[in-house]
Amino acid sequence: MAKAKSKAAYMIxxxxxxxxxxxxxxxxxxxEGLLKPSRSDGNTRLYTAEDLERLEVILHLTRDLGVNLAGxxxxxxxxxxxxxxxxxxxxxxxxxxxxxxxxxxxPTASESRNSLIPVINARRK
Length: 125
Description:
single chain, 125 residues, mainly alpha, Multidrug-efflux Transporter Regulator, Chain: A, Domain 2, three-stranded antiparallel sheet, 6 helices, 66% helix
């Protein structure tokens, strides 16, 4: 069995120093559910690159834009939902393109630029 590739992880002290914040601030973000670092066998918080990207967004919202933690939570949730929706749209478009290809429906360049719906409607007539 192949060993899973391990991700680089950073301890709370190095993250706090790198971003010039107090370790308690990171703990607060975790308590508020904004960050979810993994834990080592010794229960040490370990921050991955994805955690650091999320932290950068949190710090931008709080430091640069003055958003409070409740607002940060709402914004992060909305970003996640928007990402999920974007993924669903891409899946739908891929499925639609497969269906069109299966039925040998090829839209003209202008039709594909504008919308796939008129192509479907025109081909059904």
